[in-house]
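sry for the spam today, last one i promise. C-alpha coordinates for design, 358 residues
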Protein backbone atom coordinates (compact mmCIF):
# COMPACT_ATOMS: atom_id res chain seq x y z
CA UNK A 1 0.00 0.00 0.00
CA UNK A 2 1.21 3.51 -0.76
CA UNK A 3 -0.70 6.71 -0.17
CA UNK A 4 -1.92 8.86 -3.02
CA UNK A 5 -2.23 12.63 -2.59
CA UNK A 6 -5.50 14.11 -3.88
CA UNK A 7 -6.07 17.75 -4.71
CA UNK A 8 -9.27 19.17 -3.26
CA UNK A 9 -11.27 19.07 -6.50
CA UNK A 10 -15.03 18.37 -6.40
CA UNK A 11 -14.51 14.92 -7.95
CA UNK A 12 -11.78 14.02 -5.48
CA UNK A 13 -13.85 15.19 -2.52
CA UNK A 14 -16.69 12.91 -3.62
CA UNK A 15 -14.24 10.02 -4.00
CA UNK A 16 -12.77 10.55 -0.53
CA UNK A 17 -16.18 11.06 1.06
CA UNK A 18 -17.18 7.64 -0.28
CA UNK A 19 -13.96 6.13 1.07
CA UNK A 20 -14.81 7.46 4.54
CA UNK A 21 -18.34 6.10 4.26
CA UNK A 22 -16.83 2.68 3.48
CA UNK A 23 -14.80 2.83 6.68
CA UNK A 24 -11.46 3.76 5.13
CA UNK A 25 -8.91 6.25 6.46
CA UNK A 26 -8.23 9.63 4.84
CA UNK A 27 -5.54 12.09 5.95
CA UNK A 28 -7.15 15.52 5.97
CA UNK A 29 -6.00 19.14 6.18
CA UNK A 30 -7.11 21.35 9.03
CA UNK A 31 -6.10 24.85 10.05
CA UNK A 32 -4.18 23.34 13.00
CA UNK A 33 -2.35 20.21 11.75
CA UNK A 34 -3.15 17.39 9.33
CA UNK A 35 -5.43 14.73 10.81
CA UNK A 36 -6.04 11.04 10.11
CA UNK A 37 -9.80 10.80 9.68
CA UNK A 38 -12.26 7.93 9.97
CA UNK A 39 -15.99 7.52 10.62
CA UNK A 40 -16.31 8.37 14.31
CA UNK A 41 -19.39 6.15 14.65
CA UNK A 42 -17.59 3.01 13.42
CA UNK A 43 -15.43 1.19 16.00
CA UNK A 44 -13.73 -0.76 13.22
CA UNK A 45 -12.81 2.38 11.27
CA UNK A 46 -11.50 4.07 14.41
CA UNK A 47 -9.49 0.97 15.32
CA UNK A 48 -7.70 1.41 11.98
CA UNK A 49 -6.57 4.88 13.12
CA UNK A 50 -4.94 3.40 16.22
CA UNK A 51 -3.27 0.68 14.18
CA UNK A 52 -1.93 3.01 11.48
CA UNK A 53 -0.49 5.44 14.01
CA UNK A 54 0.68 2.89 16.59
CA UNK A 55 -1.42 4.89 19.05
CA UNK A 56 -2.14 3.48 22.53
CA UNK A 57 -5.78 2.88 23.37
CA UNK A 58 -5.64 5.19 26.41
CA UNK A 59 -5.30 8.30 24.21
CA UNK A 60 -8.77 9.43 23.06
CA UNK A 61 -9.65 10.95 19.68
CA UNK A 62 -11.21 14.30 18.76
CA UNK A 63 -14.43 14.11 16.74
CA UNK A 64 -14.84 16.70 13.98
CA UNK A 65 -18.25 17.97 12.88
CA UNK A 66 -19.54 20.18 10.07
CA UNK A 67 -22.50 21.79 11.81
CA UNK A 68 -23.62 22.36 15.37
CA UNK A 69 -26.64 20.05 15.09
CA UNK A 70 -24.23 17.12 14.87
CA UNK A 71 -22.95 17.88 18.36
CA UNK A 72 -26.36 17.17 19.83
CA UNK A 73 -26.26 13.65 18.40
CA UNK A 74 -22.87 12.98 20.00
CA UNK A 75 -22.83 14.79 23.34
CA UNK A 76 -24.97 16.33 26.06
CA UNK A 77 -25.06 20.08 25.50
CA UNK A 78 -24.96 22.61 28.33
CA UNK A 79 -25.30 26.39 28.58
CA UNK A 80 -21.66 27.04 27.62
CA UNK A 81 -21.81 25.37 24.22
CA UNK A 82 -23.91 27.96 22.38
CA UNK A 83 -21.83 31.04 23.28
CA UNK A 84 -18.55 29.20 22.62
CA UNK A 85 -19.74 27.88 19.26
CA UNK A 86 -20.89 31.33 18.18
CA UNK A 87 -17.59 32.89 19.21
CA UNK A 88 -15.06 30.29 18.09
CA UNK A 89 -16.56 27.78 15.65
CA UNK A 90 -15.55 26.98 13.01
CA UNK A 91 -12.08 27.24 14.51
CA UNK A 92 -9.31 25.80 16.68
CA UNK A 93 -11.32 25.07 19.84
CA UNK A 94 -12.20 21.55 21.04
CA UNK A 95 -14.93 21.06 23.65
CA UNK A 96 -15.00 18.13 26.09
CA UNK A 97 -18.58 17.18 27.02
CA UNK A 98 -20.45 14.16 28.42
CA UNK A 99 -20.90 11.75 25.53
CA UNK A 100 -23.98 9.98 24.25
CA UNK A 101 -24.15 6.22 23.75
CA UNK A 102 -23.75 6.49 19.97
CA UNK A 103 -20.07 7.41 20.37
CA UNK A 104 -18.00 4.20 20.46
CA UNK A 105 -15.86 3.58 23.51
CA UNK A 106 -12.73 3.30 21.36
CA UNK A 107 -13.10 7.00 20.42
CA UNK A 108 -13.15 8.12 24.06
CA UNK A 109 -10.77 5.50 25.50
CA UNK A 110 -13.71 4.17 27.49
CA UNK A 111 -14.38 7.50 29.20
CA UNK A 112 -17.90 8.98 29.52
CA UNK A 113 -16.81 12.21 27.79
CA UNK A 114 -16.05 13.09 24.19
CA UNK A 115 -13.90 15.83 22.60
CA UNK A 116 -15.60 17.65 19.69
CA UNK A 117 -14.40 20.32 17.27
CA UNK A 118 -15.80 22.15 14.25
CA UNK A 119 -12.78 22.86 12.02
CA UNK A 120 -12.42 25.98 9.87
CA UNK A 121 -10.38 24.60 6.96
CA UNK A 122 -12.43 25.10 3.80
CA UNK A 123 -11.45 21.84 2.08
CA UNK A 124 -11.95 19.71 5.18
CA UNK A 125 -15.34 21.32 5.81
CA UNK A 126 -16.39 20.46 2.26
CA UNK A 127 -15.38 16.84 2.88
CA UNK A 128 -17.26 16.72 6.20
CA UNK A 129 -20.38 18.03 4.52
CA UNK A 130 -20.16 15.56 1.63
CA UNK A 131 -19.58 12.45 3.71
CA UNK A 132 -22.30 13.42 6.22
CA UNK A 133 -20.42 11.80 9.11
CA UNK A 134 -18.65 13.01 12.24
CA UNK A 135 -14.99 12.18 11.73
CA UNK A 136 -12.51 11.14 14.40
CA UNK A 137 -9.13 12.58 13.44
CA UNK A 138 -5.95 12.70 15.53
CA UNK A 139 -2.77 14.03 13.96
CA UNK A 140 -1.73 12.09 10.84
CA UNK A 141 1.67 10.85 12.00
CA UNK A 142 3.20 7.93 13.90
CA UNK A 143 2.21 8.25 17.54
CA UNK A 144 4.43 10.52 19.63
CA UNK A 145 6.30 12.04 16.68
CA UNK A 146 6.22 15.66 15.50
CA UNK A 147 2.78 16.59 14.14
CA UNK A 148 2.34 17.03 10.36
CA UNK A 149 1.48 20.38 8.83
CA UNK A 150 1.70 19.42 5.13
CA UNK A 151 0.86 16.47 2.87
CA UNK A 152 4.58 15.73 2.55
CA UNK A 153 4.82 15.24 6.32
CA UNK A 154 1.94 12.74 6.19
CA UNK A 155 3.57 10.85 3.33
CA UNK A 156 6.83 10.71 5.24
CA UNK A 157 5.25 9.16 8.32
CA UNK A 158 2.22 7.18 7.13
CA UNK A 159 2.75 6.84 3.38
CA UNK A 160 2.86 3.05 3.56
CA UNK A 161 0.04 2.70 6.12
CA UNK A 162 -2.82 4.60 4.45
CA UNK A 163 -4.18 5.05 0.93
CA UNK A 164 -5.62 8.59 0.82
CA UNK A 165 -4.20 12.05 1.62
CA UNK A 166 -6.26 15.17 0.89
CA UNK A 167 -4.03 18.12 0.03
CA UNK A 168 -5.24 21.38 1.55
CA UNK A 169 -1.90 23.20 1.55
CA UNK A 170 0.17 23.98 4.64
CA UNK A 171 -1.66 24.34 7.95
CA UNK A 172 -2.31 28.01 8.66
CA UNK A 173 -1.97 27.82 12.47
CA UNK A 174 0.45 24.90 12.79
CA UNK A 175 -0.39 23.87 16.37
CA UNK A 176 -3.20 21.65 17.61
CA UNK A 177 -6.46 23.14 18.90
CA UNK A 178 -7.13 24.49 22.37
CA UNK A 179 -8.97 21.78 24.31
CA UNK A 180 -11.54 23.05 26.83
CA UNK A 181 -13.22 20.87 29.44
CA UNK A 182 -16.78 22.17 29.88
CA UNK A 183 -18.39 19.11 31.41
CA UNK A 184 -19.17 21.49 34.27
CA UNK A 185 -19.86 24.87 32.59
CA UNK A 186 -19.30 26.64 35.91
CA UNK A 187 -15.70 25.39 36.03
CA UNK A 188 -14.27 25.46 32.50
CA UNK A 189 -10.65 24.37 32.24
CA UNK A 190 -8.13 24.35 29.40
CA UNK A 191 -6.60 20.89 29.06
CA UNK A 192 -4.30 21.69 26.13
CA UNK A 193 -3.26 25.22 25.15
CA UNK A 194 -3.74 26.40 21.59
CA UNK A 195 -4.41 29.57 19.62
CA UNK A 196 -7.50 30.43 21.71
CA UNK A 197 -6.62 31.62 25.21
CA UNK A 198 -8.23 31.23 28.62
CA UNK A 199 -8.86 34.99 28.57
CA UNK A 200 -10.64 34.75 25.19
CA UNK A 201 -12.91 32.01 26.53
CA UNK A 202 -13.45 33.74 29.86
CA UNK A 203 -14.71 36.86 28.15
CA UNK A 204 -17.32 34.81 26.29
CA UNK A 205 -18.47 32.76 29.28
CA UNK A 206 -18.14 35.45 31.95
CA UNK A 207 -16.32 33.08 34.31
CA UNK A 208 -12.70 32.38 35.16
CA UNK A 209 -11.18 29.68 32.96
CA UNK A 210 -8.49 27.53 34.53
CA UNK A 211 -5.30 27.12 32.53
CA UNK A 212 -3.03 24.06 32.39
CA UNK A 213 -0.57 23.49 35.21
CA UNK A 214 2.44 25.79 34.86
CA UNK A 215 4.81 22.89 34.25
CA UNK A 216 3.11 22.32 30.88
CA UNK A 217 2.87 25.95 29.77
CA UNK A 218 6.52 26.74 29.25
CA UNK A 219 6.81 28.82 32.40
CA UNK A 220 8.48 25.68 33.72
CA UNK A 221 9.08 22.20 32.41
CA UNK A 222 8.03 18.83 33.78
CA UNK A 223 10.51 17.36 36.23
CA UNK A 224 11.92 14.93 33.67
CA UNK A 225 12.63 17.62 31.08
CA UNK A 226 14.15 20.68 32.79
CA UNK A 227 14.51 24.11 31.23
CA UNK A 228 18.22 24.82 30.83
CA UNK A 229 20.22 27.96 30.99
CA UNK A 230 22.17 28.10 27.72
CA UNK A 231 24.74 25.30 27.60
CA UNK A 232 24.04 24.59 31.23
CA UNK A 233 22.35 21.17 31.61
CA UNK A 234 21.85 17.83 29.97
CA UNK A 235 18.74 17.22 27.82
CA UNK A 236 16.09 14.63 28.42
CA UNK A 237 16.29 11.33 26.60
CA UNK A 238 14.38 10.86 23.39
CA UNK A 239 12.28 8.01 22.11
CA UNK A 240 8.71 7.16 21.14
CA UNK A 241 6.02 6.86 23.77
CA UNK A 242 5.31 3.24 24.63
CA UNK A 243 1.80 1.93 24.12
CA UNK A 244 1.22 1.66 27.85
CA UNK A 245 -1.90 0.54 29.66
CA UNK A 246 -1.93 3.57 31.97
CA UNK A 247 -5.27 5.26 32.74
CA UNK A 248 -6.91 7.10 29.87
CA UNK A 249 -6.36 10.84 29.52
CA UNK A 250 -9.51 12.95 29.29
CA UNK A 251 -8.22 14.50 26.05
CA UNK A 252 -5.40 13.96 23.52
CA UNK A 253 -2.08 15.77 23.72
CA UNK A 254 -1.76 15.51 27.49
CA UNK A 255 1.00 12.91 27.74
CA UNK A 256 4.25 14.08 29.31
CA UNK A 257 6.27 13.13 26.23
CA UNK A 258 4.76 13.90 22.85
CA UNK A 259 5.44 15.78 19.57
CA UNK A 260 9.00 14.45 19.84
CA UNK A 261 11.75 14.42 17.19
CA UNK A 262 14.30 11.64 17.22
CA UNK A 263 17.11 14.15 17.71
CA UNK A 264 17.84 14.94 21.40
CA UNK A 265 16.23 18.26 22.28
CA UNK A 266 17.36 20.76 24.91
CA UNK A 267 15.16 23.70 25.92
CA UNK A 268 16.44 27.10 27.00
CA UNK A 269 14.68 30.02 28.66
CA UNK A 270 16.41 32.20 26.09
CA UNK A 271 18.92 31.57 23.34
CA UNK A 272 20.81 34.37 21.57
CA UNK A 273 22.97 34.17 18.49
CA UNK A 274 26.07 34.63 20.63
CA UNK A 275 25.06 31.67 22.78
CA UNK A 276 24.24 29.62 19.69
CA UNK A 277 27.70 30.37 18.27
CA UNK A 278 29.25 28.85 21.40
CA UNK A 279 27.58 25.49 20.74
CA UNK A 280 29.63 22.59 19.38
CA UNK A 281 29.46 22.43 15.60
CA UNK A 282 27.61 19.13 15.71
CA UNK A 283 24.74 20.72 17.68
CA UNK A 284 22.12 23.00 16.09
CA UNK A 285 20.26 26.00 17.50
CA UNK A 286 16.67 26.95 16.65
CA UNK A 287 16.08 30.62 17.48
CA UNK A 288 12.76 32.44 17.63
CA UNK A 289 13.76 35.13 15.14
CA UNK A 290 16.25 35.50 12.30
CA UNK A 291 19.58 36.94 13.51
CA UNK A 292 20.46 40.42 12.33
CA UNK A 293 23.84 39.25 11.10
CA UNK A 294 24.97 36.22 9.16
CA UNK A 295 24.70 32.96 11.09
CA UNK A 296 26.58 29.69 10.58
CA UNK A 297 24.89 26.67 9.03
CA UNK A 298 23.99 25.15 12.41
CA UNK A 299 21.75 28.11 13.40
CA UNK A 300 18.11 28.22 12.28
CA UNK A 301 15.03 30.27 13.18
CA UNK A 302 11.24 30.07 13.35
CA UNK A 303 10.34 33.61 12.27
CA UNK A 304 11.87 36.43 10.28
CA UNK A 305 10.90 39.07 12.84
CA UNK A 306 10.05 37.03 15.93
CA UNK A 307 6.29 36.94 15.39
CA UNK A 308 4.58 34.14 17.29
CA UNK A 309 2.01 33.51 14.54
CA UNK A 310 4.82 32.69 12.10
CA UNK A 311 6.80 30.81 14.75
CA UNK A 312 3.81 28.58 15.59
CA UNK A 313 3.08 27.95 11.92
CA UNK A 314 6.70 26.91 11.29
CA UNK A 315 7.49 25.03 14.52
CA UNK A 316 6.63 21.46 13.55
CA UNK A 317 7.94 21.80 10.00
CA UNK A 318 11.25 23.14 11.28
CA UNK A 319 11.59 20.41 13.91
CA UNK A 320 11.00 17.81 11.20
CA UNK A 321 13.49 19.41 8.81
CA UNK A 322 16.19 19.45 11.50
CA UNK A 323 15.45 15.95 12.77
CA UNK A 324 18.38 14.28 11.05
CA UNK A 325 20.53 12.53 13.69
CA UNK A 326 23.99 12.11 12.19
CA UNK A 327 27.66 12.70 12.98
CA UNK A 328 27.06 16.23 11.70
CA UNK A 329 24.07 16.95 13.95
CA UNK A 330 23.75 15.28 17.34
CA UNK A 331 21.54 17.65 19.31
CA UNK A 332 19.05 20.49 18.85
CA UNK A 333 18.80 23.50 21.19
CA UNK A 334 15.54 25.49 21.17
CA UNK A 335 14.47 28.64 22.99
CA UNK A 336 11.08 28.86 24.65
CA UNK A 337 8.70 31.54 23.38
CA UNK A 338 8.54 34.64 25.60
CA UNK A 339 5.41 35.87 27.38
CA UNK A 340 2.09 34.34 28.39
CA UNK A 341 0.02 34.80 25.23
CA UNK A 342 -2.04 31.89 23.93
CA UNK A 343 0.49 31.09 21.20
CA UNK A 344 3.46 31.39 23.56
CA UNK A 345 1.84 28.92 25.96
CA UNK A 346 0.96 26.57 23.11
CA UNK A 347 4.44 26.67 21.57
CA UNK A 348 6.06 26.07 24.94
CA UNK A 349 3.65 23.25 25.77
CA UNK A 350 4.66 21.43 22.59
CA UNK A 351 8.37 22.06 23.13
CA UNK A 352 8.19 20.96 26.76
CA UNK A 353 6.59 17.65 25.81
CA UNK A 354 8.96 17.20 22.86
CA UNK A 355 11.97 17.51 25.19
CA UNK A 356 10.63 15.39 28.05
CA UNK A 357 12.03 12.01 29.00
CA UNK A 358 9.82 8.99 28.50
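last one done:
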Amino acid sequence: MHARVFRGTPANLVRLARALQRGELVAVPTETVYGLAANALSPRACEAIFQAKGRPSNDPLIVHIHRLAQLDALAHRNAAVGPLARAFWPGPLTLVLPKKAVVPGIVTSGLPSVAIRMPAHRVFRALLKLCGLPLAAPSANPFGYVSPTSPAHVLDGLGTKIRHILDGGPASIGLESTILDIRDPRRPAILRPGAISAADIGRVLGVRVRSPARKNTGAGVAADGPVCNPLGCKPGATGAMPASASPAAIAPGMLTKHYSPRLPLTLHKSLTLAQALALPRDEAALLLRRPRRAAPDNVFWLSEAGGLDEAARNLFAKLRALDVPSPRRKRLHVALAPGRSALALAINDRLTRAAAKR
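The chain has a mean pLDDT of 89. ok im logging off now
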